[in-house]
Specification:
alpha/beta; nine-stranded mixed sheet; seven-stranded parallel sheet
Length: 538
């Protein structure tokens, strides 16, 4: 059914049983699928039949059973931009405004007056509160409840959606260059991960890209509201409070470097701890920021002496049910997996009953490479209701900064070995085998497999050739799950590299953990090695 006031542009297609009514303008090339409903009166008790409108931009797709209501009193316009996709059973309420290229997945529910920027993605089943603004190229995770505004380029998720990072996948799909994404990453780090100064001061120093200085739009600015980073129009506080029924802004409550929703600042951060000093370093930093922690120390892996100052419980690697019960009993919902773990055989794992059930859900990934297995573990943990975070999202200073970090820099021959090593290491990672390779004079002396970097360096010490020493290159696997098992270098890595007769170490910048940064650089200087962090090309 098409009402008398409807305008339909050239090339538009209207499917069977679709209903389009009211002062509705359908742009050129729009496709409306069967049983979609557009332009019916708003679900607003204040509406008394005033003349209001709907506008649908060119080439937009509106799938089956989607509903788009016309505007209500006041603004009077519901607008959807060009090249959007409104999937099945999605609801766009009165006075919403969607930019160009917005994707709204199945069963999404928008309250009235929601504003969505260009290129944003709203995951299936999400519910968005009225008057919320979602910035351009942002992403909302499926089944999320969005009460506060979302920064441009941000990623939010959860029952009460919280900022969890940048929408990097969406930015890549939209054609943002590596340089553009790097600019946004740095701005995000300065604003949300640095501890120095107030939020306003950090935003003034680094918020340019989020205000359109890099993307051509200047109508958004950031503020903190109810524990979320938000993107809202520049307007008076009184008008904003009136619009939201008197609820004013607040401060951005944070725990360590992890953005928290209001009321969750007292919930402990769960740390599943493997070997090494990094779990204790993380625990100390989080506790120092005012947030409690609870540590699951994996038997025969974690250093319990280092973890003794913190609330912790030892658990056998296979006692998965016992560990999850311990986390839940202490109110843990945010998790970090950190530290080295030697991969056990399935026969030696001896899972408890809950562990056996979860291993069944991991399935064939249990026989895959480390990255495939870890991705499956993260997936299952999230299905169990936990939010898994990378250690670098909490303590950004743990990663290697880009540049030459030591007094000694690589010469031309070493640069050639670095380039060769980066290429081989990528191929190695594509096969989900390892993250490190040693190259000397263009020859690959060894690649990392299940034995780890230390054993690789020990083996290469017996294989080195006469002449300038080799280079250890470490980088993440392509498409690696970045929240777990990032490559790591430390003082021991430097000492083993020197003992193997190498001349330097090259790592991927910002994605390689360097928890003892100053000590590691000092050790390299003492040993006469160079240490560089690069953004390797793909």
């Amino acid at each position: 059914m098409i009402g008398p006031e409807v305008e339909i542009g050239p090339g538009a297609e209207i499917g069977a049983h679709a209903v389009i009514d009211g002062a509705t303008r359908i742009g050129a090339g729009v496709r409306v699928f069967p049983f979609a409903t557009i332009g019916l009166p708003p679900q607003d008790l204040k509406y008394r039949g005033e003349p209001t409108r709907v506008e649908i931009g060119p080439r937009t797709l509106i799938r089956e059973h989607a509903t788009i209501h016309r505007g209500s009193v006041g603004k009077g316009l519901t607008r959807i931009g060009a090249d959007c996709m409104i999937m099945c059973v999605a609801h766009v309420a009165h006075d919403c405004s969607l930019g160009d290229g917005v994707i709204v997945a199945n069963n999404v529910m928008f309250g009235g007056h929601v504003s969505v920027g260009d290129g944003a993605y709203i995951g299936g089943g999400a519910a968005v509160h009225q008057f919320v603004r979602i910035g351009r190229f942002a992403a909302v995770g499926g089944m999320s409840g969005v009460e506060g505004d979302v920064i441009p380029f941000g990623l939010v998720m959860g029952n009460r959606a919280r900022l969890s990072g940048l929408n990097v996948v969406g930015l890549k799909r939209r054609g943002f260059s590596r340089a553009d994404i790097a600019i946004l990453r740095e701005a995000f780090r300065l604003i949300f991960k640095e501890r120095h100064g107030t939020f306003a001061e950090r935003f003034a120093a680094g918020g340019g890209p989020f205000c359109g200085q890099q993307t051509g739009r200047g109508d958004d600015c950031l503020r903190a509201r109810r524990g979320q980073a938000t993107a809202v129009p520049r307007r008076s506080r009184d008008r904003d409070r009136s619009r939201r029924g008197g609820r004013g802004g607040g401060t951005c409550r944070r725990s360590g470097r992890l953005t928290m929703a209001e009321g969750e600042a007292s919930a402990p951060l769960g740390i599943i701890a493997g070997g090494g000093a990094l779990p204790a370093m993380l625990a100390a930093a989080v506790v120092g920021s005012g947030r409690p922690v609870f540590v699951l120390a994996l038997e025969n892996h974690a250093d319990t002496a280092l973890l003794a100052p913190f609330p912790h419980q030892r658990v056998r690697l296979g006692a998965i049910g016992q560990g999850l019960s311990a986390l839940r009993s202490r109110g843990v919902s945010d998790l970090v997996l950190v530290g080295t773990v030697r991969r056990p055989s399935l026969l030696s794992l001896m899972p408890d009953a809950e562990g056996a059930r979860l291993l069944g859900r991991i399935g064939r990934a249990a026989f895959a490479g480390d990255d495939g297995l870890l991705k499956a573990i993260v997936r299952v943990l999230e299905e169990e209701g936990f939010r898994v975070h990378g250690v670098q999202a909490i303590l950004s200073e743990l990663t290697a900064p880009e540049g030459v970090l030591t007094q000694l820099a690589p010469d031309a021959e070493a640069e050639a070995d670095i380039a060769r090593g980066a290429a081989v290491c990528r191929l190695l990672g594509e096969a989900d085998v390892g993250q490190a390779v040693v190259v000397q004079q263009g020859l690959v002396l060894g690649v990392e497999a299940i034995e780890g970097t230390d054993a690789l360096l020990e083996r290469c010490a017996t294989l080195r050739r006469e002449g300038p020493g080799g280079v250890l290159v470490k980088r993440p696997k392509p498409g690696q799950e970045s929240r777990v098992d990032l490559p790591t270098v430390g003082v021991r890595t430097v000492e083993r590299a020197a003992a193997a007769g190498l001349r330097g170490i090259a790592v991927e910048a910002q994605t390689t953990l360097m928890p003892e940064r100053a000590a590691t650089i000092a050790a390299a200087d003492r040993a006469g090695l160079f240490l560089v962090a690069r953004r390797f090309s793909t």
